[in-house]
Amino acid sequence: MGLSKQAKTLTKHQQSAMLSFLTNTRHPERNKLIFLLSVRAGLRAKEIAHITWSMVTDAQGNVTDNIKLQNSASKGSSGGVIWLNSDLKQMLVDYREWCKSAHSSDRIVKTERGGETTAQVIVNMFRTWYSKLGFNGCSSHSGRRTFITNASRKISTVGGSIRDVQLLARHSSLAMTQKYIEADVDAQKKVVQMV
């Protein structure tokens, strides 16, 4: 989706509604993990489709605190380290236990028949889910935009800057990161009272 017509960001209520909805799908564990990889790690559809267990586990097979996203699984050369939100890490731990037969080189997200999936399949899944929930304007990129927007709003509370958000987003330029961030009129009104 081009930046001139950006995917809408998701509210906390919409995120909760999506997780509730996914609980009643045919593959709830996998589907909730796909959603959290988007909204809690800011992964693109291609990255969700190509992430492997070796990118999230240590030599003993334990889930680590980050994703070591390789360029081959990402857009261009935008691989890098993505720190895991605690909810997402726990979901990966639980999902790994649920998929006991998973090998370290196996892709995490697989099709119903156990095969590798594609970015287009992930895009289609998000389109179907958002459509069923009536979330107009949302797409597979909504989770990524939500992640980047939320990170930008909270980064200063932990001593970081917009540059840290750029690194989390794995953008080559700060200008690109800024295009992803949703403006907040209420925050604008509050901050001028503090100036």
Notes on the protein architecture:
The protein is mostly helical. The protein has a domain at 9-144: hpI Integrase, Chain A (Orthogonal Bundle), CATH 1.10.443.10. It contains 9 helices and 2 strands. The chain has helices at residues 12-23, 28-39, 45-50, 86-98, 119-133, 142-154, 162-169, 174-180, 185-194; strands spanning 66-69, 80-83. It has a two-stranded antiparallel ribbon with strand order 1-2. The protein starts with 11 loop residues before the first helix and ends with a helix.
Secondary structure layout plus pairing:
Elements: H1 12-23, H2 28-39, H3 45-50, E1 66-69, E2 80-83, H4 86-98, H5 119-133, H6 142-154, H7 162-169, H8 174-180, H9 185-194
Oligomer: single chain
Q: Strand order across the biggest sheet?
A: 1-2
Describe the sheet with the most strands. 2 strands, antiparallel
Count the strands? 2
Portion in helices: 40-55%
Which percent range describes the beta-strand content? under 5%
Radius of gyration: 17 Å
- Distinct helical segment count: 9
Give the helix/strand class: mainly alpha
| Mean pLDDT metric | 89
For the terminal residues, how far apart are their CA atoms?
37 Å
For CATH, the homologous superfamily of the domain at 9-144 is named as Intergrase catalytic core
CATH-derived architecture of the domain at 9-144: Orthogonal Bundle
CATH topology of the domain at 9-144: hpI Integrase, Chain A
Q: What sequence of helices (H) and strands (E) makes up the elements?
A: HHHEEHHHHHH
For this structure, what is the CATH class of the domain at 9-144?
Mainly Alpha
